[in-house]
Amino acid sequence: MRAALLTTLLPGAGHWLRGNRRQAALFAAPLLSLLAAALLLTLIGGTTQLLIILVTPGALLALGALNLVIGGWRLGATAHVVRGSRLPTRDRAVVVIAALLLIVAPHVAVGRSLIAFDELLNETFAEVSPSQEPSASDPGSTDGSPSPGSSTTASPGTVPPRGGGTGTLPSLTVTTPWARPGAIPWGDDGKFDLLLLGSDAGSDRWSRRMDVMLLVEVDVATGRVAMFGFPRNMVNVPLPPGAARNASPCGCFQKLLNEVYTDATFYYPQLWPGEGSVSGIAAVRATISELTQRPIDAVLVADLWGVIKVVDAMGGIDMNVTEPVYDNNYPDPVLGSIQLRIGTGQQRLNGRLALAYARSRHQDSDYGRMRRQQALLLAIRDQLGAATILNAPALAAAAKGYVWTDLPRSSLPNLVDLFSRAATAPVRLYRFAPSAYPAYLTPATITKIRNVIANAFPVVATPSPSPSDSPSPSDSPSPSDSPSISPDTSPSAPESGAPESGAPESGAPESGAPESASP
């Protein structure tokens, strides 16, 4: 029986114990060869290369099939040992139980994880028809096209559509008003610009509002990262060329920035290309692109309700809370209006508390909330490791319907390679907050925002020998970058606790805030 039990752990081990070296080598060789190949690949290319292979379309299904073959091979090796011995019935039952626990159960769990992870990638990066945002006739279109910058509300009797916050984000289709990225999802400017949008939809509000708007820019050559946060209450944001701009007297959006989505999907759909929810996302994308003068390479939208499920699937998130969070009337999505208290120090937040940390704004302002949102995103990035990925069924169930992107699955290998370099680089955080950046934008403020974004990455100077043969600095800003502060290259930095009113005029992070965050 001992030989059979050893074989359930490693094919060929039982045969070796019995002295049958040839059969031991025959049963052990396939599994040992696979393990050696994986180890060699890891030594040569690192874990990044393994992850690139995993996200390549078709790889997970191939691994699923290989998992079945290996499981069957292990069962066959065990059966061969049992068949060659005269075990009593009780010992055979023990071996069967051991095979179920040590062979069948692990391979079933691995198979479920591979299938769930593959389904998650297929659904997130799918190219299928979008869901349609409920719409109504334009409430103010009785005589021509109204200005999207007006403060018109729905006419009496019109019932606005409700946003359920229950995983109803759209999927991409070829009818969307912009070209979908390719396998290499960035252009020839050497930067990858990803727009992150947090969709705050729920039973307490109609439609969706993009209350989180972050532009993440990655330097393709160096992996350096900059994250730009745009307050939801920006007003007079310039509109992109087209019908929406032509219909506005100032060529700008005179309402809050986070209302662009509802204008495109409900109030003035005729002024924006596309249809349904995708049209609203496209409107936000085009408006942020016009404000920043950056080509948005890709968009990732996450329903904030999904934060609860994803964080819970991760087993919670560790946060270093530098400012206490107190909200006497926080709209909890489960319990309704509650009194929220999150103390300072190292905290382990579950999904509801993590969402509350990023969503509450009654205690300070939208700008304080934006700072906490950036901190939460960085914490999730740092802690979204192998353990979470191995728990793919729970992660897939949590993210299903709550995440939308226009990135195709074919782009994942290149993105994994890019973000593996970005993972070791500091993140430069920018928050365009008062007093340096008033909510009511002026042409001068818009120009200043664009200049800051254009010069976010200091130019890397080419080393040249000096008379004393001492090398010049390897990362010094160009003259045009002089208003910005060079990033702190320390491996980690705490969350900023400085007030937004201390933000320097250069557009760098607030006074007292770290220029970099942990990779």
Blueprint of the fold:
Elements: H1 2-9, H2 13-17, H3 21-55, H4 59-83, H5 89-124, E1 191-200, E2 209-219, E3 225-229, E4 237-238, H6 243-247, E5 252-253, H7 260-267, H8 276-292, E6 298-303, H9 304-313, E7 317-321, E8 325-332, E9 336-342, E10 345-349, H10 351-359, H11 366-383, H12 386-390, H13 392-399, E11 403-405, H14 412-422, E12 427-431, H15 443-454
Parallel strand pairs: 1-6, 3-12
Antiparallel strand pairs: 1-2, 2-3, 4-5, 6-11, 7-10, 8-9
Helix pairs in contact: 1-4, 1-5, 3-4, 3-14, 4-5, 5-13, 7-8, 9-10, 9-13, 10-11
Give a description of the structure.
The protein contains 15 helices and twelve strands. It is of the alpha+beta class and 519 residues long. Among the domains are: 2-124; 162-310 and 404-425, Nucleotidyltransferase, domain 5 (2-Layer Sandwich); 315-383, Aminopeptidase (3-Layer(aba) Sandwich). The strands form four sheets. A six-stranded mixed sheet has the order 11-6-1-2-3-12, sandwiched between helices. Strands 4-5 form a two-stranded antiparallel sheet. The chain starts with a helix and ends in a 65-residue tail after the last helix. Mean pLDDT is 75; it is low at 128-166 and 462-519.
Summed up, what is this model?
This protein is α+β, with helices and mostly antiparallel strands. It has helices at residues 2-9, 13-17, 21-55, 59-83, 89-124, 243-247, 260-267, 276-292, 304-313, 351-359, 366-383, 386-390, 392-399, 412-422, 443-454, and strands at residues 191-200, 209-219, 225-229, 237-238, 252-253, 298-303, 317-321, 325-332, 336-342, 345-349, 403-405, 427-431.
